[in-house]
Structure formats: C-alpha cells, structure tokens
Amino acid sequence: MAFNDYDADATELLEAYDFLMKFIVIGEAGTGKSCLLHHFIHNSFKDHSQHTIGVEFSSRTVNLGEKRIKLQLWDTAGQERFRSVTRSYYRGAAGAILVYDITSRASFANLSRWLADAKALASPHLVTVLVGNKADRDDEREVEWAEASKWAADNDVHFMETSSLTGDNVEAPFLLVARAILLAIESGTLDPEKAGSGVSYGDRALRRVNSSSRLSFGSLSGRPKKGTVRLKMKRWIPGTKCC
Ligand SMILES: Nc1nc2c(ncn2[C@@H]2O[C@H](COP(=O)(O)OP(=O)(O)OP(=O)(O)O)[C@@H](O)[C@H]2O)c(=O)[nH]1
Ligand SMILES: [Mg+2]
Predict the structure, then answer these.
(1) Distance 145 CA to ligand 2 centre (A)
(2) Is the entire prediction scored with pTM above 0.90?
(3) Nearest CA to ligand 1 atom 16
(4) Mind telling me which NCBIfam families this protein's record contains (predicted)?
(5) Would residue 7 count as lying in a domain?
(6) Does 204 sit in the ligand 1 pocket, CB within 6 Å?
(7) Is residue 83 part of a domain?
(8) 40-57: per-residue pLDDT in tens?
(9) Is residue 2, in this structure, part of any structural domain at all?
C-alpha cells in the first residue's frame, strides 16, 4: 500500500461521523455571534470582527459519548437589511443558538421575533439555546441573569451566559443543543431520515449498520442498551433505478 493510501485512510477516519446536524446562529447585530462561533471553532477571540454580510458557513466535528457529530454551522447577519436572505437559511435547521448581548437591553427586547422566525422556518423539532454573550462586561450589564433565565423557561428554550472574549462557556451551547438532538433521536422523537429534520446519518453510522442491523444510541444517556434505534434501509434491486 502506498504512503498516500495510509494518509487517505487516516483522513477518512478523522472525517467520519455518525450524524450531521444543521445549526443556525441568530440574533441582533453586534451581539457577538461571529466571535462566539470563531471561539468555538478556533479556540481564540476574533479580533476586529466586522458585521457579517448575509451568511457565513463553518463546521466542527465533536464527540458526544461514543458518537461523532458533525455540526454544520450557519452564522447569520443580524442587520435588518439581510433579514430576508438569512431567513432562507433557517429552513430545516435542527438547532438554533439565539444570541443577545447582556450589556444591551435592545438586543434582548427583540428575542421573541427571532425565536418566532426560527420556529416558523426551521425543523419542527428545533432545539434552541438562548445565549447571553459578553458576560465579561458584567459592570455594564443591562439584562439580569434571572430575567433572561425566566424568558428562556417561558419560551421553552435552554439558557446560558458566555464570553467570546474570555472563552467562558463558548462550547457549552453547541454541545447542549447537539446532545438534546441526539437524545431526541435516541427516544424516537426525531427521525434523521425525515426530510427537514436538520439531521442526517453520516458514513460512520451507515458503516456500523452494514456490520450489524441495529444501531445503539444507549451510551449517551448512560442507560445501556435502552433506546436502540433501528435504521430503515431502502431495498434496491440490481438493474432498477436506485432510491
Ligand atoms: N467584551 C466582549 N466583546 C465581544 C464579545 N463578543 C463579541 N464582542 C465584540 O462585539 C462586537 C460584535 O461582535 P460580532 O461577533 O461581529 O457580532 P455579530 O453578532 O456577529 O454581528 P453581525 O454579524 O452584524 O450580526 C465586536 O466588536 C466584538 O469584538 C464578548 O464576549 N465580550
Ligand atoms: Mg457576525
């Protein structure tokens, strides 16, 4: 086997994942969405961040228990003039990171509108986390933790505060949403094979199905064997059109 073949195999293993999940990052302009994403992906603060024009795409693969999850991340512009463009990227999202700035009451005041748009356009099983960013500027705080926490509870979304500057909690919102989606798959509430679910199986899951027809998601919840999901494979007869 040539050296390059080993290299290709290693890359393939690194790239392999069980699920691909579509996430959107939304909220008012200047709340720190791009900086939050940048820290999550590059583990550093993004200096001199400019307003996002339309939408920017990035991705990161994370491990949750035994599962490798590839997160497809869509960073949307908060400026009103891009609203119609950015909304078109909400379609079929499985997760939403809804960001406000703890030092800006105005960015908190519009949350209902952002959430309503996401709920209307994304997956029916959308999992949302409300993120109060810029927690490092506590002395300039305009939105109390308790008030935001109540808003989140009233609107049935998760909540946490972060700082893209210090890196505090920057991974947590993404992992929390991915974990909730994985648990929804495990419990059978969310079917990755359904169009618009915002989730699809990766190579790794399919490969596992090829060696055994049962795919277990039990490890994440710590309940061995429970929640085993059967993957539906379409039958293909040679000589006919596939799928
Ligand atoms: N102190 C502090 N400043 C931050 C933090 N996150 C972002 N900023 C600053 O806030 C400003 C806006 O950050 P962006 O990430 O570009 O904001 P955005 O939400 O992506 O804005 P749009 O792309 O216009 O929607 C920049 O000047 C950042 O340096 C943070 O956690 N703490
Ligand atoms: Mg931005």
Answers:
(1) 23
(2) no
(3) 49
(4) small_GTP
(5) no
(6) no
(7) yes
(8) 999 999 999 999 999 999
(9) no
